[in-house]
Amino acid sequence: MSIFNYFLKKEKKSSASLAKERLQIIVAHERSKRQQPDYLPLMQKEIMDVIRKYVNIEEDQVTVQLDNNDDCSVLELNITLPE
Amino acid sequence: MAKIIVVTSGKGGVGKTTSSAAIATGLAMRGFKTVVIDFDVGLRNLDLIMGCERRVVYDFVNVIKKEATLNQALIKDKRTPGLFILPASQTRDKDALSMEGVQTVLEDLAKDFEYIICDSPAGIEQGAQMALYFADEAIVVTNPEVSSVRDSDRIIGILQSKSLKAEQGGTVKEHLLLTRYNPERVAQAEMLSVADVEDILAVPLLGVIPESEAVLKASNQGAPVILDQESEAGQAYLDAVSRLLGEEMEHRFLEVQKKGFLKRLLGGK
């Protein structure tokens, strides 16, 4: 191992912390999906169909998210319209 | 009233059956009348780990189908008094277990036993859901490794939504059992630490079982590893059983063991 490797190694993250980071992201993502009601994917599809009647958009230009707060739920609909 | 505890994990090969055998044996050693049920229909293995594979006559499915009585199917453990095993069937029909059938068997067992340990199959399909449905408590077996932690989180989600307790508005009491833990690799930041896994899963820690040669040795012999009280794994399972019974115990075997001079000289492990 050369002296350069020694310095390079310090820059690199440990594999355990990389594992933790990746897990935190994927687990948070999967948990939020789990809490969604079953009708959400279908509703998202129908909303898409309605929008498509008027504007030509791709599937990834619409995000639907349901956030549950203590006493109310907020349905967030985000549509990126083409220029 | 019997307490039903499911040993589950989502991912396969993390140590569910090893842990079920050890914890059931540990509870019986503490004087509680305990039965351990193999829910892995088609891939029966608990009998091998418990060392009673040649004494299986009738199984769980026979009892559900009323081809045998519960007493005919239960195998009395030869080593530990007060411990019984209900083996899984080897039928390839994966729908052999019915929810009503399982419920009837559990209700019958609850009359005689103080603890019912359900050894879940891997996966999140019907078999695993059946094993956890009636549980009062769940032991989630996890390895400090990404796929196992993720799958544990999935099974925790199922415990919180698809168990009888959850449907009734209650909760299944969850315990995290971290197995195949290697303190050396954790010290070198090559393996997720106990704190990392606790952080991600947010489930109270029941125990940490260090990676140990004793586990394979125990399964070779068909004797639950908790009986090998010389081994770290055996001692760690004993501690876990004490915690399950509500006793406060400090977690052991989390740090790198310093080898003594003599041990190093003799090359011992």
Describe the model.
Chain A is an alpha+beta fold. Chain A contains three helices and two strands; from the N terminus they run H-H-H-E-E. In chain A, strands 1-2 form a two-stranded antiparallel sheet. Chain B contains 13 helices and eight strands. In chain B, strands 3-4-2-5-1-6-7-8 form an eight-stranded mixed β-sheet, sandwiched between helices. In chain B, helix 1 (16-29) packs across helix 12 (232-244). Chain B is globular, with a radius of gyration of 18 Å. The model of chain B has no long low-confidence stretch (mean pLDDT 93). The A-B interface holds A 14-17, 19-20, 22-24, 26-27, 30-31, 34 and B 145-146, 149-150, 153-154, 157, 161, 186, 188-193, 196, 199-201. Chain B: Pfam families: CbiA (PF01656). Chain B: This is Septum site-determining protein MinD. Chain B: Keywords: ATP-binding, Cell cycle, Cell division, Nucleotide-binding, Septation.
Short description:
Chain A: Belongs to the MinE family. The complex is a heterodimer of chains A (83) and B (269). In chain A, 53% of the residues lie in helices and 17% in strands.
Biggest beta-sheet profile of chain B: 8 strands, mixed
Identify the CATH class of chain A. Alpha Beta
Q: Quick one: overall form of chain B?
A: globular
In terms of structural class, how would the helical and strand content of chain A be classed?
A: alpha+beta
Tally the helices of chain A: what do you get? 3
What fraction of residues of chain A sit in β-strands?
A: 15-25%
Q: What average pLDDT do the residues of chain B reach?
A: 93
User: Main β-sheet of chain A: number of strands, strand sense, barrel status?
Assistant: 2 strands, antiparallel
* Distance between the amino and carboxyl termini of chain B: 44 Å
Helix content of chain B: 40-55%
Q: Which chain pair has the greatest contact?
A: A-B, 14 and 19 residues
> Could you report the average pLDDT of chain A, rounded to the nearest whole number?
80
Order of strands, main sheet of chain B, comes to 3-4-2-5-1-6-7-8
**Separate helix tally of chain B:** 13
- Give the low-confidence spans of chain A: none
Number of strands of chain A: 2
Reading side by side through the largest sheet of chain A, how are the strands ordered?
1-2
- What is the CATH homology-level superfamily of chain A? Cell division topological specificity factor MinE
Number of strands of chain B: 8
Strand content of chain B: 15-25%
Protein name (chain B): Septum site-determining protein MinD
Keywords (chain B): ATP-binding, Cell cycle, Cell division, Nucleotide-binding, Septation
InterPro entries (chain B): CobQ/CobB/MinD/ParA_Nub-bd_dom, MinD, MinD_FleN, P-loop_NTPase, ParA/MinD_ATPase
Subunit structure (chain B): Interacts with MinC and FtsZ.
